[in-house]
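Need the bound structure for DLL, inputs here:
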Amino acid sequence: MFQPELETMSREALERLQLSRLRTQLARVYVNVPLYRRKFDEAGLRPEQIESLDDIRRVPFTVKDDLRSAYPFGMFAVPPRDVVRVHSSSGTTGQITVVGYTRGDVERWSDLMARTLVCAGATADDIVQVTYGYGLFTGGLGAHYGSERLGAMTIPVSGGNTSRQVQIMKDFGVTVLACTPSYALLIAETAAQMGIDVPSLPLRIGVFGAEPWSEAMREQVEKAMGIRAIDIYGLSEVMGPGVASECSERHGLHVFEDHFLIEIIDPVTMEPVPDGEQGEVVFTTLTKEALPVIRYRTRDISRIVTGECACGRTFRRMERVTGRTDDMLIIRGVNVYPSQIEQVLMGIEGIAPHYQVVLTKRGSMDAVEVHVEVGPEMEFDEIRELESLQKKVAAAIAGALAVSVAVKLVEPKSIQRSEGKAKRVLDLRGEGAGPR
Ligand code: DLL
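Answer from helper R.:
Posting the output first, comments after.
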């Protein structure tokens, strides 16, 4: 472990620490951030009335729109001169939001990313290729600082130029690859085209996150690269990567609870759900100085994994994030996440692990079509074989998800590859289309 004394704290000691940090944090935001003061006042709440962790339920939620309306720096809790770094969220669901860090925030973030890398099995002897994008995205610099903090040899390649990624991986003897799972697949595919056998290289660990991915996808990438793939989670508004990470047990992601308070709520009633039940993840930062967020609704869907973890860490675990509420498709009344479709597709022989869910309009009705590439071993002009494969895919989806969707098989390499977050849903319904 990177910080064993913290990572194995007793629940009692941890909760004491959380409560004292929470109270300090609430008092700070009340004084320094007008939006929080207004929300607290409207709720008739004073920060000092929070006397237990359970009292957090009395605190108003924060949503993405709050950050948007305060664009760019309106929710910072420190003067600009104390901010040493800004990043922004990817903006895939609207205008970007800006997040800030004090020097202390960058320090803590580096520790938490070093913690993440150690959780994944890395040590100071590793050679880490950081292929998350550098820039406003938190992935690149987050992983970079963590890897340096760990003392590993850090290679800041950033995303893109995939054949060069492969060359560097081979020439430098890279042992840890940090990127999105979908980009890992593209790297593996490119290596194969270059005649380089990744499993025979020293590469041993993948530190993958920033997008939903299925267990079946993990198996694919592990096989293609000869590695152990670890799921890491985070979001810019809360810090970036380094909020939660799988350990060697790979049974849920340990939430770094000394810095982040996690709640799972029912997104309709907004009440907390019991441990083990699925809901929306809500975070409160306990130590962030520049941009503290209080009860931030992430829109990510997960649940608490109950019980103790064999790795010895006492931080509670959250299950891998299935998807975001904004990516959820409602197909004839059934809720479906793209990652669930992925899980089904990856188990079928003859198709490649590349897919996209395409939304169109048929008359006034929304139509959903799953586009999936046939594998390179299939003859694309073998009509009969294709037909039977297509039926097989449609039947597998219908069997697993209890809803039938149209399936279209497409030629190898025709679905756009991603160097960062994959775009799994393509909305072609045009202007005026309602929310998904
Ligand atoms: O994606 C931070 C990050 C970078 C995490 C590198 C892990 C690795 P944002 O761009 O703000 O930040 O996007 C955050 O991405 O709310 C989730 O919906 C999704 N996400 C992140 N990690 C995972 C994961 C970074 N492991 C949003 N599984 C989050 C599923 C993930 N979804």
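Comments: The CA atoms of residues 28 and 77 lie 7 Å apart. The chain has a mean pLDDT of 94.
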